[in-house]
Amino acid sequence: MIERYFRLAENQTTLRRELLGGLTTFLTMAYIVVVNPQILSQAGMPPEGVVFSTCIASAAATLVMGLYANYPIALAPGMSLNAYFTYSVCLGMHIAWQTALGVIFFSGVFFLILTVTRIREQIVNGIPNCLKYSTAAGIGMFIAFVGLRNAKLVVANSATFVGLGSFSDHEVQVACIGLVLMMILMVRKINGAILIGIFATTLVGIFRGMAKWPTAVFSVPHPSSTWLQLDLRGAMHLGLLEIVFAFLFVDLFDNVGTLVAVCEQGGFVKNGKIPRVGRALLSDAVGTIFGALTGTSTVTSYIESAAGVAAGARTGLSNVVVAALFLIAAFCSPLATAIPGYATAPALILVGGLMTESIARVKWTDFTEALPAFVTMLAMPLTFSIATGLSLGLISYTLVKVGAGRFREVSPLLWILTGLFILRYIYLAVG
User: Under a CB-based contact definition with an 8 Å cutoff, are residues 22 and 321 in contact?
Assistant: First the structure.
């Protein structure tokens, strides 16, 4: 039954690979169970309620993606979006978190409408191939940079912006050990190399006294403090439409960028298009609505899913594993959060490197294809934003095609998106 539903043989995978891929994906993104409550609690939200809502919303959205779209792409509350929720909306604009959750709910409804009307699907499929390839590579560089930062191999430097970390730092040492171990295992093509490396690095950290064994196995969730606490009437205030658009905009293009990148890495893109993309896009809309009801910020696709794909995941069965682990994490958060950041950092670095393979398919001899690809790749890690990189890439694509007199290669959809992006940057400059 599992074989027929998920089409394992057709996707050249096995039950074991899907289980390993799902577990790997979960371990690389399990940090959200801890980080999301820490960020949202600064907006006044009860952390114990946010832990439960984070896990349950992630599980629901991930399950929709796996069962309905059959893709190994997990979802959870987005990191940039929870920061915008707390620091810009709640603290900066002095909006109550209950009202902000109402705004999240309406943005999720708008997402659902855009998905059902297939507007989002047209946006994804309308992105030129050079930008799809460069988006995958750009996000690869982005997550590799995140991994280097988490491993403290790259640190802030007042003179050069970034610099090399200190090898006297024990976390740097252990991360390097994990990085070398994962490289050796991957070169030898050992199944589950990334997962083995994460576990081994964690154990090294524990034996060196840098991490501790979980103090407990079970913890009782407290969902009532955030469950159905959203203020829909307050969120309908006219002045909050700008915030709805901000959540809508960032999640739309972060999610599109992640889908394109992971699907490109997994070989799911056919003839320049992502099959079943409408179903895939439905999952984050459902997740966002459900997350607002339970008490968390916008839910989006996670680029950490690329680690699971690299470990062998090719179908939605791995998502079922991730969803199950998120549900367990709601009751066993001490175990789920026992993996330190420096243990998963090497996985992000290596997966990021693997994702840059797609740039070989960019037509580098054609300047009108090469320049937008370069801008996209460069902007993502430097601006620390997938959405910004993709938007700048789209603008440069339209401008360079027009400059070359190749108007016909710019579709009506790209004209609309380019205009919207330019207006957005004008608005940001004036504001």
Answer: yes
Per residue in 265-302, pLDDT (tens digit) is 777 777 767 778 778 888 888 888 988 898 888 888 88
Domains held by the chain: number: 2
Same domain, 245 and 383: no
Terminal-residue alpha carbon distance, the chain: 56
Q: At what angle do helices 129-150 and 241-266 cross, to 10 degrees?
A: 100
For residues 111 and 320, is the Cβ–Cβ distance under 8 A?
A: no
Residue 188, classed as helix, strand or coil, is coil
Residues 19 and 128 in one domain: yes
> What is the reported pTM?
0.70
Q: What is the pLDDT of residues 372-422, one digit of tens each?
A: 999 999 988 888 777 778 889 989 999 999 999 998 888 888 898 888 888
Range of the domain at 403: 363-430
- Among positive and negative, which fits the CA dihedral 146, 150, 154, 155? positive
**Cβ(389)–Cβ(127) under 8 Å?**
no
